[in-house]
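This entry is listed as follows:

___
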Amino acid sequence: MKIAIYPGSFDPITNGHLDVINRGRRIFDKVVVAVARNAAKNPLFTSEERVELIKENVKNRPNIEVIAFDGLIVDLAEQLNAVALIRGLRAVSDFEHEFQMAQMNRHLDERIETIFLMPNERFFFTSSNLVKQVFKFTDRERNLIPENVHAALSEKFGHNK
């Protein structure tokens, strides 16, 4: 079984993330969505909330698992017998950072490949941070995030659903 890990903070998950997950599940037997418990990023949602938001959107896909993790992603990959890490690329500006991370991960464990997947062009400009910034002022954005994320953001920012 070829297992891939799609790591990220997913604070919150967007339709772009879900598109990358769906692309990954066509390539690998199993995709593990690994939610980083990185408190240094000061997330809006707890890791448990982020895991649940993702699980609600992938519940009918048996080859997807969602977990939270701490530590190095290459260590998690070894624990799960994963062969690859999936990373999403939206624009050229993502490439330099993603390339550096991929090279460091290869340095730490050369057995783990990094696969870059691009979301559908409708989501190229989408990021969790942009979605949160929009929601500070309005709750009208519905095309870039799943409905459960819209509801959760509306609740966090005190908007009417």
